[in-house]
Amino acid sequence: MTMRSLLLLLLIASHSAQGQLLDSIGQFLQEPPRFVARLDVRGGFISNRSVRFVGVKAGIDHGRRFQYGLGYSLLFPSEARDAQVEGRTESGFLRMGYVAPYVDYAFYQRGHWEARIPVQLGFGAGSLSYRDAEGKRRTIARTGLILYEPAMTVQYRFLRYFALGAGWGFRLVIQTGDDLGERLTAPVYLFGLRVFLGDMWRDVRGAQE
Description:
The chain is an alpha+beta fold and 209 residues long. 16% of the residues lie in helices and 64% in strands.
């Protein structure tokens, strides 16, 4: 299975009108491809504590309606929590990071407004560690992670390179190794300023040429 086929299946799984969606995507894929890159910030929860994931995404856009590509996100900053080590309590740190192929479909566009359905499937790792008396990092638990994150976002774009956006979704997490002792499956939310690095890079390059 090709990467494009995998990404299409991810989006189809999150949308009920599969036939109409495939027809629309097929039309948009006829549009010339253009490179896109952007910063990606997502809020969420771990065991009812609010956390933030920060990352970058880079991919291909067709007609400003359908995108697919690859991103990387990590828990930032690492989550501080108490850890039990040989019967004593240490100041531990929870770390998470993952690579995620994604698709992003804009089902509504009017003026500066846009509504999209982003879906990503992540593969990464998480760990719980602490610093010993000598300052060395000691790992208590480590696990592989598989994540599925569908969402819906609404944004208002301005000044060409920026947009204010908000959205909500859900993060489903499967741990493949040690139990980190946390509830990682939880709702996610997106709110803040988006920067369109791909458009900025193209304009700078065009001015230089």
